[in-house]
Amino acid sequence: MLFVCLHNAGLSQMSEALFGRRRGGLHTGLSAGTNPAEHVHPEVVEVMQEVGIDLPDRVPTGLSDELAAQADVVVRMGCGDACPYIPGTIASCR
Questions:
Q1: pTM of the entire structure?
Q2: 23-26 — which CB contacts under 8 Å span 24+ positions?
Q3: Alpha helices in the chain (DSSP H)
C-alpha cells in the first residue's frame, strides 16, 4: 500500500506507520510525496511517539513511477492536482 501526499512529511508518514503496525507482517506500506519536504514535521514525530511509534529517522521520499509500480493500492491524501493519476489508486482522503 502506498500513501501519497504533497510533502510526505505528515499524513502519509503517519498513515504508513499506522498501517505498518496493523498489517501484522502480511503487507508492505510505503509513503511518498509529490514535492517532498526536507524532514517529517516535528509535531507528527511527537504525536506518533505518544502512540508508541518512532518516526525521527524517517526522511520524506519523492513519488516516482518505480515506487508507484510497487503498490497494489495507492491512497492519495490531499495532494489535489499535484497528485498525478496512478493506476491502482482507490481512495482519496480529502
A1: 0.84
A2: none
A3: 11-22, 42-50, 65-69
> Position of cell 505518544?
50
Residue with cell 498513515: 15
In which band, very low, low, confident or very high, does the pLDDT at 26 lie, cut at 50, 70 and 90? Answer: confident
Which residues pair with residue 89 across a beta bridge? 74
> How long, in residues, is the chain?
94
| CB contact set of 44 (below 8 Å; sequence gap of 6+) | 9, 10, 13, 14, 55
The predicted-structure confidence for 55-73, as pLDDT tens digits, reads as follows 989 999 999 988 888 888 8
> How far is Cα 94 from Cα 78, in angstroms, rounded to an integer?
5
Nearest alpha-carbon partner for 73 in 90, 50, 49: 90
Task: State the pLDDT at residue 73.
Answer: 86
Half-sphere exposure of 17 (CA within 13 A, CB side): 23
